[in-house]
């Protein structure tokens, strides 16, 4: 029974933010010191972040291990998986992350009722976990019966430790911080440290850091405060005898610890990382910055870094990337700390020019303060960032949580620093700064400051050495252990698994009832249509009446979504079905240059820098990318987020960018150079390469995602680069033809999300676009390309190809993609059972979790969710041996499908809950709820109530239907002859992987990545590693007058 006493939580403060409809309330427990910070905002989801500051002075990985061990049971609930099964039934998900300075345990719930049900159980797992020796064996590290290292945490870090990012970041932190500073260490754990980490060391770390006074319960969503405080008060009552008293001495992590000394000199070091392709390296450069608690200084830092590196017209980016072509990008970020760290990262740098590019960056950072800044541009940056903050506060789930967590870690406990979230006065202050103030700030923290720099150099020799060293280490261990020792280790692992996997009594789970779906407050978006969008169906609603009453124009396809928002979201959907297949790889360059190209306006040529500056002045943000984010992988989307008064000017921008752009060979060449420089890094990604190869096998070349693969760019773009030098008019002609095939009246669908009652001229404003020369309003709208229609013969009937293993020197683990035939329609009668079946298998602490992750066979596994794609995929992520993970998965699914293992009622409830949660995710904010209506009605062609109907239908699925879906649709993805498998892995794993897949029945081949290159018939099929000297001399010589945009999914 709940306590009748008044909860012992004191309210520190409560305030509404000036820039968004959110109320922030801060409480503190006078009994334990626990802090509770709630950001109340409307929506279906309640997100919890249970955050602890976690400081450690070694690389043991103890903070990271707890992120996993906490979920293995607690004092009262001594069952592995109980927390996750409870969450799964209550429309909730649990997760966690470990950063250098904190660990956060997350609870995402659809509705307050489910969140409240789980909260106390979750917090007990955090504060009073069962950290058993058996749990440490499976979750942290063990040696299997074959003498190989495994364990969930170990496998995760094995995939990271020798990556370029990890090696460079760790070396930079070693140079920044002495040994008495916690920021110096790898909290994830180094492999050599994880191999010797003891359970007692983990328990010791937990005791020192996991105390209520070092815990913040951060909640974002619609919360019942009285209920919340009562739950927390009862929870504290239950643990008060098991935690240190509040008057016991406690040193606040990082804040009460030693602070890092300033750098006495600048330090530059070179770090090698394993890589077969030695053409391209990386650079990171770090400075100490102002305190994260100084809001004016930190905001000034954000603005200044945007001025330097924020876009293609920013000072550093414009010179180094656009004009001198020394890097593919210069990115930046900063770490929130009492002494923040400012990072610069030039990417895609030619290896032999690493030192030169570093020195060029240093010289530019010194040069920028020697002359006046462009204060007009700085003013626009300030005004735009203010707009972006307001926009993020309205639409981002994570805006408040990240700011609140940072304040808890380093801010003042009296709430004075948190209170600064109430307004945006810092922008008023900074708008008054003079040029000299900005330059003095820049001199203090960057231009005249010491720094550390790490040059990352790829090395095939190191890759070979690491492989040989690891093989020798494991071989020596096997010899030392012998058959008897290996057998003991195998038995110890089996014993640990058995002890970890005690069956949870059903009656224990039944103590918590499944919450009512009525407790979830879904966001409603009302649809209206104009022009050719009316062909989908007539609507009779207040929103439609607003659109019907507005002045009409050309019949462009426009769907409106009416939500309460201060902003306008514009999405323009553009299909690629009429694009010549030979030109489809050019789409990457077209999107890269779309916002970063000269244009003609009013008969005058406007350079790309002025285009970007004017776009930034008129918008909050803009991007162009593939339309996968709205469920259509064969199309593109152009998106703008703007203030309401900029609606019509944004439409005019769309016309200019689509029809009045200038295809400039200089700009295109700059985009090609940047894209080529990024290819070596993309080819280091084992997961990405496995997916690319899978696409090459199962999808036709006409498919947009296939055409923009890295393995296409690697050869196609080299040919384009040569043609630009030899026949530039030919390439320009291709781009013009490409553009004409895309921007046609019948190929454009528009989504406008806004408060329609406040939007001026919503329909006729689109005539600025639809009256462009050459657009024919009489043509019927082109159909959306069905995803299953782009499958190749092998994609429609997988199984002939078999398995392919691709060794990659950059990997220390393995990734796999298995593909079989799947559903082709959202109207397939098997869909409800199929969704429940997949949810059942994937449930946290469910069948596949226990079979794979629980046995240390992989960090994660998942099924694809492209319901109408005509295929099903099973993906293994970060595995010490993907083939074993696949085999264990097959056996698990087969036993459930056959009835040998009965279905678990609670896991079925969890699977249904997961489907509800997925719907809540799709409608988490006003903008996403509106977008989902467009996806359902326009992209998928479904009825408006489809989501509601599917939620009703999944509740009626029977056990026989689940087993039938497993047998007919899911199980074939594990069967030779019905599925194909792509594996990317470390070279050391190649031989065993091949043997295991062959034993499973797959016809198996070994291929290099280059086997899957495709030049799309333009004669670029030569080895892309040839002529490297010519390529480097040409691409890094500089001389470009203009630059170009950024990535394919370009976000300004």
Keywords:
1052 residues; alpha+beta; seven-stranded mixed β-sheet; 38 helices; disordered C terminus
What does this structure look like?
This protein has 1052 residues and is α+β, with helices and mostly antiparallel strands. Helices cover 42% and strands 17% of the residues. A seven-stranded mixed sheet has the order 1-2-3-9-4-6-5, sandwiched between helices. A seven-stranded mixed sheet has the order 16-17-23-18-22-21-30, sandwiched between helices. Strands 10, 11, 12, 13, 14 and 15 form a six-stranded mixed sheet that branches. It is globular, with a radius of gyration of 29 Å.
Question: Secondary-structure blueprint of this entry?
Answer:
Elements: E1 9-16, E2 23-29, E3 35-40, E4 45-53, H1 62-69, H2 82-89, E5 92-98, E6 102-110, H3 112-127, H4 133-139, E7 142-143, E8 149-150, H5 152-158, H6 164-176, H7 191-194, H8 199-209, E9 215-220, H9 225-239, E10 267-274, E11 280-288, H10 295-309, H11 315-323, E12 329-335, E13 341-347, E14 349-350, H12 354-367, H13 375-395, H14 399-410, H15 425-431, H16 435-447, E15 452-459, H17 460-500, H18 506-509, E16 526-530, H19 542-549, E17 557-562, E18 567-575, H20 587-593, E19 599-601, E20 604-606, H21 608-618, E21 621-626, E22 635-643, H22 647-659, H23 665-682, H24 686-698, H25 704-707, H26 710-726, H27 728-742, E23 748-754, H28 767-770, H29 793-796, E24 803-807, E25 814-821, H30 831-842, H31 847-851, E26 860-863, E27 871-879, H32 882-898, H33 905-922, H34 926-939, H35 946-954, H36 959-970, E28 979-985, H37 990-1000, E29 1004-1006, H38 1028-1035, E30 1050-1051
Parallel strand pairs: 3-9, 10-15, 17-23, 24-28, 24-29
Antiparallel strand pairs: 1-2, 2-3, 4-6, 4-9, 5-6, 7-8, 11-13, 11-14, 11-15, 12-13, 16-17, 18-22, 18-23, 19-20, 21-22, 21-30, 25-27, 25-28, 26-27
């Amino acid at each position: 029974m709940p306590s009748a006493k008044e909860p012992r939580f004191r309210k520190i403060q409560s305030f509404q933010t000036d820039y968004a409809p959110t109320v922030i309330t801060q409480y503190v427990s006078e009994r334990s010191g626990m802090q509770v910070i709630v950001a109340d905002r409307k929506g279906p989801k309640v997100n919890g972040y249970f955050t602890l500051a976690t400081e450690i002075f070694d690389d043991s990985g103890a903070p990271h291990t707890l992120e996993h061990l906490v979920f293995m049971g607690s004092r009262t609930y001594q069952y592995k998986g109980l927390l996750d099964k409870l969450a799964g039934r209550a429309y909730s998900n649990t997760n966690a992350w470990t950063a250098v300075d904190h660990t956060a345990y997350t609870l995402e719930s659809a509705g307050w009722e489910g969140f409240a049900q789980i909260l106390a159980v979750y917090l007990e797992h955090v504060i009073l976990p069962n950290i058993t020796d058996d749990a440490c064996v499976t979750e942290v590290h063990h040696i299997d019966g074959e003498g190989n290292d495994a364990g969930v945490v170990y496998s995760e870090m094995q995939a990271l430790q020798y990556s370029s990012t990890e090696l460079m970041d760790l070396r930079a932190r070693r140079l920044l911080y002495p040994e008495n500073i916690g920021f110096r260490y790898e909290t994830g754990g180094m492999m050599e440290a994880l191999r010797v980490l003891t359970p007692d060391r983990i328990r010791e770390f937990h005791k020192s850091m996991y105390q209520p006074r070092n815990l913040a319960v951060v909640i974002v969503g619609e919360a019942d405060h009285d209920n919340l405080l009562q739950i927390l008060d009862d929870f504290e009552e239950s643990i008060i005898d098991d935690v240190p008293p509040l008057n016991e001495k406690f040193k606040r992590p990082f804040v009460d610890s030693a602070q890092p000394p300033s750098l006495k000199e600048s330090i530059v070091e070179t770090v090698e990382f394993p890589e077969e392709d030695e053409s391209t390296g990386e650079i990171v450069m770090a400075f100490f910055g102002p305190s994260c608690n100084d809001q004016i200084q930190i905001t000034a830092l954000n603005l200044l870094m945007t001025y330097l590196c924020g876009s293609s017209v920013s000072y550093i980016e414009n010179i180094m990337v656009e004009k001198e072509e020394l890097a593919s990008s210069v990115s930046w970020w900063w770490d929130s700390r009492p002494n923040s760290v400012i990072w610069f990262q030039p990417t895609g740098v030619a290896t032999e020019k690493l030192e030169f590019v570093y020195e060029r960056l240093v010289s530019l950072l010194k040069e920028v303060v020697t002359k006046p800044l462009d204060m007009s541009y700085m003013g626009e940056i300030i005004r735009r960032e203010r707009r972006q903050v307001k926009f993020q506060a309205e639409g981002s789930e994570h805006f408040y949580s990240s700011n609140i967590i940072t304040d808890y870690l380093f801010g003042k406990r009296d709430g004075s620093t948190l209170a600064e979230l109430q307004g945006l006065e810092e922008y008023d202050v900074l708008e008054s700064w003079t040029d000299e103030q900005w330059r003095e700030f820049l001199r203090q923290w960057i231009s005249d400051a010491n720094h550390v720099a790490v040059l990352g150099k790829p090395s095939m020799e190191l890759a070979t050495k690491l492989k040989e060293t690891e093989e020798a280490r494991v071989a020596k261990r096997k010899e030392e252990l012998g058959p008897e020792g290996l057998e003991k280790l195998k038995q110890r692992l089996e014993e640990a698994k058995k002890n970890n996997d005690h069956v949870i009594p059903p009656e224990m789970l039944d103590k918590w009832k499944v919450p009512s779906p009525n407790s979830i407050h879904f966001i409603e978006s009302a649809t209206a249509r104009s022009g050719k969008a009316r062909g989908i169906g007539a609507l009779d609603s207040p929103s439609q009446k607003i659109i019907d009453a507005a002045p009409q124009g050309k019949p462009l396809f426009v769907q409106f979504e009416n939500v309460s928002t201060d902003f306008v979201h514009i999405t323009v959907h553009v299909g690629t079905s009429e694009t010549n297949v030979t030109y489809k790889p050019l789409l990457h360059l077209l999107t890269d240059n779309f916002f970063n190209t000269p244009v003609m306006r009013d008969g005058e040529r406007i350079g790309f820098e002025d285009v970007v500056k004017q776009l930034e002045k008129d918008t909050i943000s803009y991007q162009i990318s593939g339309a996968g984010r709205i469920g259509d992988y064969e199309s593109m989307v152009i998106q703008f987020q703007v203030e309401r008064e900029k609606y019509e000017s944004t439409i005019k921008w769309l016309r200019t960018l689509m029809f009045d752009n200038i295809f400039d060979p200089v700009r295109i060449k700059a985009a090609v150079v940047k894209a080529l420089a990024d290819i070596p890094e993309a080819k280091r990604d084992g997961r990405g390469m496995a997916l690319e190869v899978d696409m090459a096998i199962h999808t036709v070349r006409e498919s947009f995602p296939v055409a923009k693969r890295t393995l296409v760019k690697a050869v196609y773009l080299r040919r384009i680069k040569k043609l630009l030098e030899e026949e530039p008019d030919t390439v320009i002609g291709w781009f013009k033809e490409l553009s004409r095939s895309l921007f046609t009246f019948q190929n454009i669908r528009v989504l406008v999300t806004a408060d329609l009652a406040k939007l001026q001229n919503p329909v006729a404003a689109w005539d600025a676009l639809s009256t462009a020369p050459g657009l024919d309003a009489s043509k019927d709208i082109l159909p959306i390309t069905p995803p299953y229609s782009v499958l190749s013969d092998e994609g429609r009937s997988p199984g002939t190809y078999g398995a392919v293993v691709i060794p990659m020197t950059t990997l220390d683990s393995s990734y796999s993609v298995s593909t079989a035939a799947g559903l082709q329609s959202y109207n397939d009668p098997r869909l409800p059972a199929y969704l429940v079946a997949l949810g059942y298998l994937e449930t946290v602490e469910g069948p596949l979790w226990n079979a794979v992750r629980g046995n240390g066979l992989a960090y994660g596994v998942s099924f694809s969710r492209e319901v109408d794609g005509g295929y099903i995929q099973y993906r293994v992520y970060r595995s010490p041996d993907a083939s074993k993970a696949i085999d264990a998965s097959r056996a698990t699914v087969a036993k459930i499908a056959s009835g040998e293992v009965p279905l678990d009622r609670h896991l079925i409830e969890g699977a249904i809950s997961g489907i509800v949660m997925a719907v809540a995710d799709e409608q988490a904010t006003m903008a996403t709820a509106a977008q989902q209506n467009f996806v359902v009605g326009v992209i998928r062609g479904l009825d408006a109530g489809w989501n509601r109907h599917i939620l009703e239908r999944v509740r009626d699925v029977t056990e026989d239907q689940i087993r039938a879906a497993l047998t007919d649709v899911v199980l074939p993805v594990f069967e030779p002859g019905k599925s194909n498998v792509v594996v990317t892995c470390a070279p050391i794993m190649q031989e065993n992987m091949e043997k295991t897949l062959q034993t499973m029945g797959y016809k198996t081949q070994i291929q290099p990545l280059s086997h899957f290159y495709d030049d799309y018939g333009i004669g670029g099929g030569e080895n892309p590693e040839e002529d490297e000297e010519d390529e480097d001399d040409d691409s890094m010589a500089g001389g470009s007058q203009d630059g170009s945009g950024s990535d394919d999914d370009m976000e300004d």
